[in-house]
Structures are given as C-alpha cells and as structure tokens.
Amino acid sequence: MQFILAKLLIVWMLYMMVAPAHAVVRGKPVHGLALYGEPKYKPDFEHFDYVNPDAPKGGEFTKTNEAYLTFDTLNPFTLKGAPAHGLERLLYDTLMTRGEDEPYSVYGLIAQTVEVAPDNSWVEFTLRPEAYFTDESPVTAEDVVFSFNTVVEKGAPQFRTMYGDVESVAAIDPQTVRFTFKTTANRKLPLLIGEFLPVISKQYWETLDFADTTLDIPVTNGPYVIESFEAGRHIIYRRWENYWGKNLPVNRGRFNFGHVRFEYFRDDDVRFEAFKTNGYDFVREVSARRWAIEYRFPAVQNGLVQTMEVSDIKPLDSQPIFLNLRRPVFQDRKVRQALNYAFDFESMNANLFYGQYVRSRSFWQDSPLEAKGLPDAAELELLEPLRGKIPEEVFTAEFSQPVTDGTGNPRDNLLKARNLLASAGWELKDSVLTNSDSGQELTFEILTRSPTSDRIYLPFMQNLKRLGIETTIRMVDTSQFINRLNEFDYDALMIVHPQNDLTPGNEQRENWGSQAADIVGSQNVSGVKDEAVDFLVEKIISAETYDQVTAATRALDRVLTWNYYVILSYTAPVERFAYWTRLKAPDEPPALGLDSMGESAIALWWADPNAKPGITTGGDNVESGPSAARDRLILALVIGAVFVIIFVTIRRRRANTRTDTTG
Fold first, then answer.
1. Which among 386, 392, 417, 523 could bridge 338 via Cys, Cβ 3.0 to 4.6 Å?
2. Beta-strand runs (E) in 240-290
C-alpha cells in the first residue's frame, strides 16, 4: 500500500506542476521541450538528477530474454522477424532524449537545439557537428531525412501512425532539418519526432532492403556496438569507447557497463535456476508464485541477491485479453460483457497470484487520467455530442468490474452472463451456445506462446464452458505468434498494453483508431472501429492544456471500458525486480521507474568495482557469467545421465545373472 500512496503523491505533485500550463515554447531555438510548461533542466544543466555522475565505467550487465524466446534479426524497426533485445536503445541515438523524472520533457541528443514554429506548423532541429556513426561518417540532416522516409515507408506501422501528421521533411543545410506539419493542432508531434525517430545511416542502408530481416551488424551511432552474437542464444554489446555523445550532459552517469549481454532461455524454470546460480545479474519477475515463495534461496538470504518492488508515476500497465472484433462472434457488446462476467479475478488472485494483483478497471489506472465517478463538466462537453453512439452507462454510472467471493464458483456472475447472452440471441443447443438466427456456435481459440499460461486460462475456460461456450488454447512458437499477431490471425490473446506516460497523444490513434484497425502490424489489437473513439482520440491530440488532455482521456477511458472491447484482467501495483549486488543503482529510481524490459537499469546502473571475491563483475571477459552457468547446467545434466546409464546397466547385468543362475 505504501507504494501506491507514494506513487499517487508523486503523480499529484507533478500533475499540479503542469495542469494549468500551456504547451511548448515556440519561436526560438531551445535546448529542450516540455509538452506542458517549461523543462525541469535548464540549458546549463550538467546531468540528470537521477543518475550517479561519477559512476565507474566497465564491468558487465547480464540479463535474459523476457518478451521473445528467440531472435532472428538485428533490425528492430520493421515487422519482420523477432529482434534481439537491446538493439533500439543501445545502438541508435535519436534527435532528443527524455527526462525520466518529469511527465514529458525531451532534451537535445543528436540535436543541439530545437525550434518549434510560433503556430506549431513545423519543427526544426539543428544537429551537433560532433555526432558521427560507427564507420566515422558524420550524422547529417540528410541522414535524418532518409531515416524518417525509410521508417515511415518500410518500418513498422507505428511510425506511419505516429508521424501521420507530418507533411514533409527537408534538409535546410547539412546540420539543419525541418519537419513541416499537415496540422497545427498536434502539439505533441515535435516531441515525438525528437524522442522516437531513430537516426540511421543513409550511406549504409540505402543499398539494402530495410524491410527485410538481417543478421549483419549495422552501422549505428549509439553508446554500444554489437560485439558478438549467436542467433537465438545470446547477444553481447560492447560499450563504444569512441562514442561521440558520451560527455553530453544528457549522457553523464549513463551507459556505464563495459558489456551488456542478453542470454536466451526457452524455459522459464531453467532461466530462474540460472539466475539462482549466478548465471546472470538482473531479472524482472513476472510470476507472482515465484516472487512469493521461491526468492528464499541462499544468495538472497546472505545478501548477495537483492529484491525490490518499484512504483512509478506512470499509469499501471494493463494486461487485457484482447477480443478480435474482426471476428463476427465478438462484434456484439453484450457478448463481450458476458465474457467479462466469466473472468473470476478474485479466485485467481487468491489461488494463483498470492494476492499480489489488483483488478484492472481503467486503461490509465492509478493516475490523474483514470475515469472515476460520473463525468464532470469538461468531460460531458465532449461526451454529450456522442450520446446515442456510446453506451448510456457512460453518463449514468462509474465503470466497475464484477466481483466474486473468490471460491471459484462465480454463480451470480455466470447467471448475469447467461442473461446477457440470451438477450443477444444465444441459446443452448446440445450443451453448446448457439445463435438462434444464424445457427453459429459460440466458440473461440486463445492464442499464446507461453507454456505456463494454461493455469491462467483454464479457470476462465471452465466458467465459459458452464455457459456453453467452447474454447481452446493454441500455443505457438515466438515467430509464429508474432506473425499471427501482426496479421490479426487470432480470436483472442493476452498481451501487456502499457500506457507509458501521463501525456497521451498520437499513440492513441495506433492503439484504438479506426484507420489503424486495418493496418497490418498495428497496435489496434482488438480491431476497434468506433467514430466516438476516433473523435475523443483527436481531442486528446489537439488539446492545448493539460486540463483538456485530462478531460479527453477520461472520456475515452469511459467509452473504451463500457464497450468491453477487451477483458481488463489484472495488474500489479508494483514492478518486481531482483539483482546480484555486484550491480549498483542510484539511491532512488527515476519517477518514470524502471521500464518493464529493464533497459533503464542498463542505462543508469553500474558495476561495483569493489565486489567481493567470487562475486565477479564480469569485467571485459564476455565469456563469464551466463555461459558459465549454462555450461555448469549442461555438465550436471550430462553427469546425471551418465549415472543413470551406469545404474540401469548394472541392474540389467544383475538381472541377467540371476536369470542365468535360476535357469
């Protein structure tokens, strides 16, 4: 509870800082931009407050795969393939970088200054003359123009959606690039270009197919380079000693490790055993059961491994079950609502999650953007024109989730679900729920890539079966899961849906917009096509003050939740991490926390040069750590197999001897 209270206090303080303020400074070159108000850090700042500016350099940071079980490409910007971990953040610099202790501010990285037109019709970046790529060629405005055109035309669809309001981009001179906008209403766009546009080498990429997968080590410009890799097993990054930006204020105290290594495991239990035996340094724990009962191994007890729970100012991540509205069976709101009644969170939390989760009820949970109570006057001003196009409950009730007694028998909720289904024209025929008009049976498949997901889905599926709904689980490998996700080839699936900051904008088009629903690989996983949703998304994007953003986001939250486009399942109020104490961290994590992939720790932490003997930092010996742990595990398995073979052989010989004797 203390984590939640602390988070709400921080959120409220930051919210009060920006709530009455207007948008970014315009009409002059500046060192940084804040979406609302002024950036926290002034032009002469020396380093971010949340870093250790004197952190020693060297050592090694090792972690494992979490999102993908393998990788087959070194290009993180396209749909094809499963990219290796760390590529985007460690190898590629952007024009600007984000301050992680503010709601939303960015500061010059490749860009020395940035200027936004007085009417917000363009943004202009002046590049640092000292910026260069790993092939020693300078970073120029032409590279930025090429980068934008390439990722928009051939990259993942998120780039096309995010930068859809950009009319054109042009190099004014070798060090100056200007982006001209289609509209003056998109006030977040200059920051999104600065923070998220990867700057790639025109000289390197113009002769290659950017849209294809590749295992060639690319020319880059970020703080690390790829030292070696084995596809699907590990990748090792080496700190680039000649990195052009290492002395910039935005980088002081950051990117301290001499090597960063990602090890890939296909089995969760094996991965955890490797961590226990000093196989890697850092883990984000996603298993509530493991966190509750298995972090008692000797290294934890003697202080060599530390555990921590981290809260931040961002809304809590949701992990919905996405229902694919492209399938006719999910297009009826009553059906979607009935499925939500069959999800017994209280029983799961008690029996599977050790009480560590809370039920999701909002897409911006535990933040000022979360819709609570009834709509206020500012929200009603947006919602009234939509009356008749959105559920009436938006106006009359606060959204809440159904609750059970946690015994695993949600009888009352299943009765409500059955009544909803009956009113939608579904009736039982031979114990299978069937549409009375079309004769279609209500069945669907849940797509997953995790062999441990059955324990979550099976209680839900059992409740659905009691309603006459037949469901199955389809487990596929990582590559197939990614392909099917991108092609919208699924009935239902569960994936994390983060709202990464307190300043929503263009990304909401990608998440919920009607246009994105038909773009292969978009983040509109459910395929939402709703005029009311589109209207509210555009109100968020065009908001001039934080009060307007807040009202529009809360209104969108109400429309999304009351439409049951997804089954909001559960979320953790804190992120759970464990690490070997050869790693050191700043006294307090930044207000935006440690991101779910742990890459903030890679950027901000450092290796302890005074680690006790036997608790090695890895240094520059990239063969230490995980490989040694894996070798020990393999050796133990081989030795065990040999002993089994010897034991079986002896038993057989003794049996044969007895047979010969009695015969």
1. 417
2. 259-263, 282-284
* 91, 95, 245, 364 from 177: Cα distances, Å: 22, 11, 20, 35
Expressed as residue numbers, the domain containing 214 is 2-309+584-607
Q: Is the pLDDT of residue 661 over 90?
A: no
pLDDT for the residue numbered 36:
85
Write the CB contacts of 483 (distance below 8 Å, at least 6 apart in sequence): 489
- Backbone angles phi and psi of 64, in degrees to 5: -120, 175
pLDDT, position 12: 40
398 with 435, same domain? yes
Residue 617 belongs to a domain: no
Counted domains in the chain: 2
Q: Three-class SS of residue 336?
A: helix
Give yes or no: residues 545 and 588 share one domain.
Answer: no
The phi-psi region of residue 640 (left if phi > 0; otherwise alpha if psi is between -120 and 50; otherwise beta) is: alpha
Asked whether residue 60 falls in the same domain as residue 89, the answer is yes
* 113 and 252 fall within a common domain: yes
Q: Which one, of 539, 619, 598, 623, lies nearest residue 239 by Cα? A: 619
Output the pLDDT for position 497.
83
Tell me the angle at which helices 411-423 and 333-341 cross, rounded to the nearest 10 degrees. Answer: 170
Where on the phi/psi map is residue 135: left (φ > 0), alpha (ψ -120 to 50), or beta? alpha
The strand pairing partners of 305, in sequence order, are 580
Give alpha helix (H) positions in 311-404: 333-341, 345-351, 377-383, 393-396
| Helix axes 268-276 and 626-662, enclosed angle (nearest 10) | 110
Q: How far is CA 144 from the centre of its chain?
A: 26
**Tokens representing residue 225 in the block:** 């380079």
Nearest-Å Rg of the Cα atoms of the chain is 27
Q: Which amino acid is located at 213 in the chain?
A: T
φ, ψ of residue 618 in degrees (nearest 5) = 90, -35
pLDDT at 103 over 80: yes
Residues 397 and 261 grouped into a single domain: no
Same-domain status, 297 and 329: no
What is the per-residue pLDDT across 359-389, written as a single tens digit (0 to 9) for each?
999 999 999 999 999 999 999 999 999 999 9
| 293 and 351 part of one domain | no
CA distances, 660 to each of 75, 144, 188, 294, 649 (Å): 66, 84, 87, 51, 16
Whether residues 325 and 305 share a domain: the answer is no
Q: Which residues contact 425 (CB under 8 A, 6 or more apart)?
A: 435, 436, 437
Report pLDDT for 155. Answer: 95
